[in-house]
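Blackboard transcription, Thursday session:
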Amino acid sequence: MKLLYFAALRDRVGTSEEDLTPPEGVADVRSLLAWLRERGAPWSEALADDGSVRVAVNQAYAGPDTAVKAGDEVAVFPPVTGG
Amino acid sequence: MITVQRADFDPAAELAALREGRTDVGGVALFVGQVRDVAEGSGIHAMELEHYPGMTEKELARVDDEAHRRWGLTATRVVHRHGLLYPGDNIVLVAAAAGHREPAFDACRFLIDWLKTRAPFWKREHTAEGARWVAAKEKDDAAAARWEEE
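(Written on the board underneath:)
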């Protein structure tokens, strides 16, 4: 699974991209975020506030129940500010 | 048509291209967003625009499809820049051509309102005090929410 981080969240995490193999049981966005936080700092702090974290799976917005699996591209980023 | 680019664009040329060869258009509404030299009390020297290549184009296409579905438009145009921009520079252009002014105005407003809350772009302002990420604004969420369907 490829994880991408953008903007302020990338600055907090300290990397723009990582390849991960989450353990069995991580099958949706909710459990993926929980597992990332369990890894400790900086993820535990960067992803602490659910309200300021947006997630996209394979380049489409995802909710907590959206399924994730091996091979997916999962992006984590703050609310967007374009336009 | 949707374009995400680093280069500048010419609003007059975009308007001309949108109208070219069409006699079924009764009106075109066009909005251009540009970099301001001040934000929240500090002077802005430059504005960096980051985006998520791939998803940006897909999300803009979803917003554009929705505008066509709602208003039955003749044509639309969306251009969004990324990279390092300076006060006065163009950031974004959205235009909607329709048979009459109401759908043109509404669709133009819709395109920019939804783009602002959905397309994965992030602004970083460079000020005398340093660089800072721009926070999402509640008024932009409220503007986008006006277009939610029951």
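Lecturer's comment: The interface with chain B takes residues 4, 6-8, 11, 56, 59-61, 75, 77-83 of chain A (CB under 8 Å).
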